[in-house]
Write the structure tokens for this entry.
Amino acid sequence: MSFKAFVSSAAIAGTLVTGTVLASAPAEAAILVGSRLNLQNVTRGGVSFSSGGGVGTLDFEGLAGGQAVGLGASTGSFTGATSLPLPLARIQDLTLTDIGGGMFEFTGLLPSFLSGIDLPGFPGGNDLQFDLTKFIFRQSTGDADIEGFFRLGSESIQGSGLFTTQTNLGNPSSFSLSIEAVPTPALLPGLIGMGVAALRRKKEEVEESA
């Protein structure tokens, strides 16, 4: 099943974008806009931060063979997402550039920063992946702003969110991650236009029935 078929079959009316109700929207965005994926460390897992020589490293600890990550209470199209069947979902270690002032960043492309996520209705355990493009880490607070793209097959949609830890208090630390699917600026006018058209049709239907 393609990503386009997935979002088309699961499309829901009433998606909210900048206050506009969408009855329908481009397949690549309609079902995912506003959906949120939540993750956290698993038992015996966590993350450590170290720095030196102009770089910082986030080392995710987990089960043997990789860094395991658990899925929390996600919303929208990600509701019911799991890391089963095995292997567990994975999060990759990060090497960050020290940009001064206790700030560290990653920019570029890290494919499959998150992987091993199973979505309802799809076989296997690696349906959804998240490719990282930006990670801005604040050492003093232990949190970071992140950006990237959710990917399923050949289709993708932009995502952004917040990574939080207690690494500023000590290592190793627990961590959590919440990423929301958002439309790109180029897609917004189309989404809003379709929302306006949907509202106009609804108004006409109400007037006709009256």
About this structure: The radius of gyration is 19 Å.
